[in-house]
Amino acid sequence: MAKKSAPAKSSSMNNFEERLERLETLGEQIRKTDIPLDEALSAFEEGIRLARSLEKDLEKIENRIEILMNSASAPASESPELELFNAGE
Fold first, then answer.
1. Is residue 24 within 8 Å of residue 47, measured between CB atoms?
2. What is the pLDDT of residues 5-30, one digit of tens each?
3. What residues does each domain of the chain span?
4. Which CA distances in Å does 76 have to 71, 72, 81, 86?
5. How far apart are CA 68 and CA 58, in angstroms?
6. Which residue in 2, 50, 54, 81 could disulfide with 23, CB within 3.0 to 4.6 Å?
7. Closest CA to 52 of 11, 13, 20
8. Helix, strand or coil for residue 3?
9. This model's pTM is above 0.90
């Protein structure tokens, strides 16, 4: 097997995005009225696992952002814009 030359952070982000896309696909499948119950249940279980792993990743990202925001090396006069993170509230 050949190794990918992309940096780990980049592949980690793609993995996050791929998992998020899969979760959205599962949600669409579950909403269909003609899906058999056993398939809906399997999709739901996979969706729960994905949602939990994505939530853990988001917590890690939030912690990293908080560390960067509170870093002593950041100038106090600069105020970062966090509109992206506050949009869901």
1. no
2. 444 455 555 698 999 999 999 999 99
3. 17-68
4. 10, 9, 14, 21
5. 15
6. 50
7. 20
8. coil
9. no
